[in-house]
Amino acid sequence: MNMVFIAGNLGADPETRFAPSGQKITTLRLAAKTRRQGKEETIWWRVTIFGDRFDKMLTYLKKGSSAMVSGEMTTALWTDKEGRQQIQHEVIADSLKFSPFGRTDRPAEQGATSGAPSNSPSAYTPSYSAPQIQTHAFTPSPSHDFSFGDMSPQSSNSDEPPF
């Protein structure tokens, strides 16, 4: 089993369908940026959510929203109509969280007038907030000074690094 953790932005609104058995299946398209050989690439992931585990969160996720997903990774290889090899990355979601890495500088939706409702995720404040996760606290030993200290520029003749 391959487990992955991915942070990215939704390329489309979540899509929900039902299996013949009645099970709810929600699909997200998540774009994650990576850097290879000095070039930035976007890798598209299909995220599949079974059941209603994340229904409250999904109401706040729209195209462009930032999200973090962890789960089991699968890949599918096929040949398209033009004879080119294609690959599809898929994650069966075990965990879905709002991402703190999202863009906060999104421009207002074009065509929206002031006072008119907007469909952009940044135009409303959700009443649901994701639960906070307790992480292991790091307590530095007295021999390590992790403070930022004086942030003023140092003189050019200092032998100490600027960090």
Characterise this structure.
The structure is a single chain. The protein has 163 residues and is mainly β. It has a domain at 3-102: OB fold (Dihydrolipoamide Acetyltransferase, E2P) (Beta Barrel), CATH 2.40.50. The protein contains 1 helix and 6 strands. It has one helix at 55-58; strands spanning 3-10, 15-18, 24-36, 39-50, 66-79, 85-98. It has a 5-stranded mixed barrel with strand order 1-3-4-6-5. The radius of gyration is 22 Å and the shape is globular. The two termini are 41 Å apart. Mean pLDDT is 75; it is low at 105-141 and 143-155.
Mean pLDDT: 75
Distance between the termini: 41 Å
CATH-derived architecture of the domain at 3-102: Beta Barrel
What is the CATH domain class of the domain at 3-102? Mainly Beta
What order do the strands of the largest sheet run in, or round the barrel if closed?
1-3-4-6-5
Concise synopsis of the structure shown:
By secondary structure, the chain is mainly β.
